[in-house]
Design goal:
This protein is an alpha+beta fold and about 675 residues long. It is built from 17 helices and 40 strands. The chain has a 9-stranded antiparallel β-sheet with strand order 14-13-10-11-12-15-23-21-20. Strands 25-26-27-28-29-30-31-32 form an 8-stranded antiparallel barrel. The chain has a 5-stranded parallel β-sheet with strand order 3-2-1-4-5.
């Protein structure tokens, strides 16, 4: 077996590979850029080599710099992770020339299937059903518009070398096709060093289901069942699960056999994924093949018990797969939630900064329940603007889908993350969504269920009452503590009030509180009593306990005038007052936010790429104003109404903070 491998990647996938290598007794080498000098994968590896400045196109995707690290450390093999150089034929060939094993497929398979245009042509030749589209190279935006009209709107504009949602746009008309082509081309060049674009028909209401394949160099090609990845935003997967709630055994077998046949046809070895779109009648169409490990591979590992990274390493060493197709069982259900550094309350725009608190739930593995968290960050670390915004992949497993979802709900409730904007509230909201729980989902789920963006969850009345009971319990403990302190100092005990008005959000609950041996009984003004039981103490950031027997994990933080409670996607302020204080508070005027309607504010930390207007221009509603790049994605900012540009404060190349004023209008 290899004695030393280099991981040509960063973040959580580099940490993931290091864990398996360590288990196998293999030494590891990390590479890092200026921005990653103190990164977790650098700390975890046995050795680390600096390879250049922060931008990926000056470090992680520069083949010669990675090769220098390989030579310097004497690594016998390289695992590319995903993204960066993982599907780069030239990188695999460079390693082969040096006599270094590539822990991935042969260069020929990468070229054939990693290139989305070529792979579609090969799939068509092999008789695989494919989505209609134009597989030739597209010269410019006007050519893209012409082809889009020939294919028929809506169309998907995609980077040939793309992946992870980078270089992908959906266009519904000529304007969007023109803009989408330019943005996809720019993103593809920045992320993959390859700006070739193709166009295909966008199939409405599809489900995104993919087959995990694993092949060795001894003629064995197997499928490890499927993953459903239909919960997507901007073509980027957010929640994945295995197996799919939609497939029946016959369709599963047909898709698996077709995926294996396609992989075998190109001499594929190692782990890979064949992606399909599936319509409501379970007709499936080849979409693309990813010739690498997928981000969502943990859910496959959880339902099969197979360590995909270990098998990739063994296959690269020349070993045969130790199992046959009939040996691969489908055991239980697994969920994966991708935790991103993006603010769901600001249109999911990227967020950067320091992780002032990072406390994931404890990882467990029992016969009835599992929690797994693949991550590449740590408390006190920084999220930079240079790389993918993923923070962690939180996974749960259970015997049934409903149990796996409930496990994920609890795990998300207990995941503490502060310092940056993040999508934890949104993930929690999806897990609680009736449509998701039913399994009746498509890739349009987010667009259909959150058409105006995510504005948080408005809890139902029973949940509000339980949160009010938690707030009352917390208030009782705080008052009891204050009474003990005042009693110790003044030799008399301050009286603890028992009648309060709890305001949660904008709703008032008059309550009567009584201490019990287990916690607190909270009576709701003649409308029943909720018993709160918990060992929560002042200073704990998580309330963990039960409310009338219902388990609850609530993020609890004291803020000015009350407490901030976060639960299942809801973010509410709770204020507990005496009846007289509540009466006076109702008379206070509401503070209105500042008027920013005549300003274009930068919605995220990023770089101005292009300004499309000039001072004095009259712009129309929806017109493009400028493009901001952040975390390898281009974002076009548009006019919200007809107006005149009076001042432009930023130019291409400027780096901006959140809410910096880009333009002013009249």
């Amino acid at each position: 077996m290899f004695k030393k491998i280099l991981i040509a990647n960063r973040g959580e996938i580099a940490c993931r590979v290091i864990k398996t290598a360590r288990k196998m007794g293999i030494q590891t080498v990390a590479i890092y850029s200026d921005a990653d000098r103190n990164a977790l994968h650098v700390k975890m590896a046995d050795e680390a080599v600096h390879i250049g400045p922060a931008p990926a196109n000056q470090s992680y995707i520069v083949i010669e710099k990675v090769m220098q690290a390989v030579r310097q450390t004497g690594a016998e093999a390289v695992h590319p992770g995903y993204g960066f150089l993982s599907e780069n034929r030239l990188f695999a060939e460079a390693l082969a020339k040096e006599g270094v094993a590539f822990i991935g497929p042969p260069a020929g398979a990468i070229e054939a299937m990693g290139d989305k245009i070529t792979s579609k042509k090969l799939a068509q030749e092999a008789g695989v059903s494919t989505v209609p589209g134009y597989m030739g190279l597209i010269e410019d935006a006007e050519d893209a518009v012409k082809i889009s009209n020939q294919v028929g709107y809506p169309v998907m504009i995609k980077a040939s070398a793309g992946g992870g949602g980078k270089g992908m746009r959906i266009a519904w008309n000529d304007t969007e096709a023109r803009e989408g082509f330019d943005s996809s081309k720019n993103e593809a060049a920045a992320s993959f060093g390859d700006d070739r674009i193709f166009i295909e028909k966008f199939v409405t209401q599809p489900r995104h289901i993919e087959i995990q394949v694993l092949a060795d160099s001894h003629g064995n090609t197997l499928y490890l069942h499927e993953r459903e990845c239909s919960i997507q935003r901007r073509n980027q997967k957010v929640i994945e699960e295995a197996p799919s709630p939609f497939l029946d055994p016959e369709t599963r077998r047909a898709m698996g056999e077709q995926a294996c046949a396609l992989a075998a046809a190109v001499g594929y070895t190692s782990a890979g994924t064949v992606e399909f779109i599936v319509d409501g009648a379970r007709n499936f169409y080849f979409l693309e093949m990813n010739t690498r490990l997928q981000v969502e591979h943990p859910v496959t590992e959880l339902i099969t018990g197979i360590d995909l990274v270990e098998q990739m390493i063994r296959v690269a060493y020349g070993e045969a797969l130790p199992f046959k197709q009939d040996d691969i069982q489908l055991n239980g259900w697994a969920m994966e939630s991708r935790l991103y550094a993006e603010d769901p309350y600001r249109g999911f725009l990227p967020s950067i900064g320091r992780l002032s608190r990072y406390r994931p739930p404890a990882e467990v593995a029992t016969p009835t329940h599992a929690v797994r968290n693949d991550t590449g960050v740590f408390e006190g670390g920084e999220i930079s603007m240079f790389y993918d915004p993923m923070i962690a992949k939180l996974c749960t497993w259970a015997p049934t889908r409903a149990q796996a979802i409930e496990g994920m709900r609890n795990a998300l409730d207990g995941f503490e993350l502060e310092g940056i904007g993040h999508n934890l509230p949104f993930l929690a909201a999806v897990m609680d969504h009736e449509k998701f729980a039913s399994g009746n989902i498509t890739t349009a789920f987010i667009a259909e269920e959150y058409p105006d963006g995510f504005e948080g969850v408005s809890p139902d009345q029973p949940t509000l009452r339980r949160l009010a009971a938690v707030a009352a319990h917390v208030k009782m403990l705080k008052e009891a503590r204050a009474a003990q302190i005042s009693g110790a100092m003044a030799n008399h005990k301050r009286r603890v009030e028992t009648d309060w008005v709890v305001t949660v959000g904008k709703q008032n609950f008059p309550v009567h509180i009584v201490e019990t041996p287990q916690g607190t009984d909270v009576s709701f003004d003649g409308n029943g009593t909720l018993s709160v039981a918990s060992d929560w103490t002042l200073g704990d950031s998580l309330f963990t306990g039960t409310v009338d027997g219902t388990p609850m994990i609530v993020k609890t933080e004291f803020v000015r005038g009350g407490a901030r409670l976060r639960y299942r996607g809801a973010d509410l302020k709770a204020v507990v007052r005496t009846p007289r204080q509540a009466e006076l508070a109702a008379l206070m005027p509401e503070k209105l936010p500042a008027d920013t309607s005549k300003l274009l504010l930068c919605p995220m930390p990023g770089l101005i790429v292009k300004v499309m207007v000039a001072e004095g221009d009259e712009v129309q509603e929806g017109q493009s104003l400028c493009t901001v790049e952040a975390m390898k994605m281009e974002n076009i900012l548009r006019a919200e109404k007809k107006c005149i540009v009076t001042k432009i404060n930023a130019a291409p190349g400027d780096s901006l903070k959140v809410d910096d004023v880009i333009m002013e209008f009249e």
